[in-house]
Amino acid sequence: MRVLWRVPSLSRDFFVASLADALGTGLLAGAVQPFAGVLARRLGANAELLTVLSMAPFIGFLFAVPASRLVYLYRWGTLLAVARMLIRIPFLFFFWISQPALFVGFLVWSSAVDGATKPLYESLTRAHIRVSVRPALFKWVRIINIAVSLPVAWFTGKLLDRSPDSYRWAFPAAGLLAILLVLPLSNLPRRFLEGFVRHTRINVLTELRVLAVDRRFRLFMLIFFIGTFGEKLLMPVTPIYFSDILNLRYTQVGMATGLVGPVCGIAGFLFWGWRMTKVPTLNIVILCMFLKAVKPAIWALAFRHPDPVLCVVAGEGAFRFIIAGMEMSASLMVLQMAPSGRVPVYVGLHYLFMGVRGLAGPLVGLWLYRSGVGIQNIYWLTAGVVTAGGLALVLAQPFAGTLARPPADGQFPITPPRGVSG
């Protein structure tokens, strides 16, 4: 790869190790993620187990902040390698797993550890990779991840259609290969992190005080929370919908969520990245908020359509394309709203709300399902909630219009609690 010749020698080891790790991540993403929920359902998992499975990444995310501090205690790539091992080792045990509780339990462990240890990679990237090389690293890691996952998802879907029990060796095989691809991370040289002061602490009370002081940020977070809460309702009921109502084959599920979805996501990142150079970021957030209602509306109609697979594919493709713009524009809005020196606090709150939303949404969706609300009606409710979020941003323009401008320094001073250094 020609790009490696342009990477400084001090960064090259980590660059190569990251590309190998991305290959392993793509293998597992293609083999497991598109089929986990449907497999669990067909093994006998009830709605409660599916809810826990859908919440797993967000459970782990609540521990991401304390986990990230391990980087300052153990400054070597072995730490990241151990984290990746803990994510991938559980897949070796699927050869013996056929009980739905164990099946979900091992997936929850892997997904939760993945969520908790995400900051490790970013922190170690700062220590190992020079600023000029980071964009190339992130780009190639993403491309390799998705490029590998696409054919693996197609192959795994075909395999499961022929033999539903083939996950017993397909998952361990993907896990073993992914573990071997972690090894380059464990041999990285030691690199010290820069800009860390041990006595610096920012706790939850400091972060919550931002909401009391900065009403612009409080308003945006509230509306964004409501508008993005809707799709989380679908997480526990979608496997039931695919398996029990639409009777989709594994190949069809893989095509929608493992092939078409990721390709549309790449197209979305390219398109919205270009549009954000032409259109104010807030306008992109509003537009994407409205457009997100397309997926639940299409999926609600799928059971009446003569070709439900077409509806599932269209809904998933549209959602991945739109959510790419939503993710980028929302992150940019948070960065625009943050005063100088307070970016970590604002970003931390943004991700904290993501974690809370990801935990609460599936529980509400489960409650609706257990209360007798039909799955199609839950999809329509989701479309309504998402639309309400977009409408709320439009109606809040007299206040939200100021979000497009970064605040002046000192406009929203945050005083840390006594004994806490900000």
Keywords summarizing the entry:
422 residues; Growth Hormone, Chain: A; 2 domains; 20 helices; disordered C terminus
| CATH second-level architecture of the largest domain | Up-down Bundle
Number of helices: 20
Uncertain segments are 193-200, 406-422
Overall mean pLDDT stands at 78
Q: CATH fold name of the largest domain, please?
A: Growth Hormone, Chain: A
* Rounded Rg: 22 Å
Give the CATH class of the largest domain.
Mainly Alpha
Secondary-structure element series: HHHHHHHHHHHHHHHHHHHH
Proportion of residues in β-strands? under 5%
Main sheet: strands, sense, barrel: none
SS content category: mainly alpha
Helix content: over 70%
* Envelope shape: globular
Give the CA-CA distance, first to last residue: 43 Å
SSE blueprint and pairings:
Elements: H1 2-5, H2 9-31, H3 36-42, H4 47-61, H5 64-68, H6 77-88, H7 100-128, H8 134-162, H9 167-180, H10 183-186, H11 204-213, H12 215-229, H13 238-245, H14 250-275, H15 281-291, H16 294-301, H17 308-337, H18 343-370, H19 375-395, H20 397-400
